[in-house]
Amino acid sequence: MRGDPSRQLTEAELHAETAPLLQPSLVLLARKWRRPATIAPVVSTRARCNELCSCGSGKKYKRCCG
């Protein structure tokens, strides 16, 4: 009987009682793990030599702050 704390459950009975409770959580976890990871592209913040300088002078980086 389910509500009787003095009764020992067999392993099969324990699995039969807990499986319906665990199944929705396991399905959600499996879906999350199977979903491909979305990785943001790496954007370089480093100024290249021939780009305008980030200080706002209007000069090329290599002639200004580089």
Describe this structure in words.
By secondary structure, the chain is mainly α. The chain has a domain at 8-36. 36% of the residues lie in helices and 0% in strands. The chain is built from 1 helix and no strands. The longest helix is centred in the middle third of the chain and has 24 residues, at 11-34. The protein is rod-shaped, with a radius of gyration of 31 Å. The N and C termini lie far apart (80 Å). The mean pLDDT is 82.
* Cα distance spanning the termini: 80 Å
Principal-axis shape equals: rod-shaped
Helix/strand-derived class? mainly alpha
Q: Helicity, in percent?
A: 25-40%
List keywords for this structure.
single chain; 66 residues; mainly alpha; rod-shaped
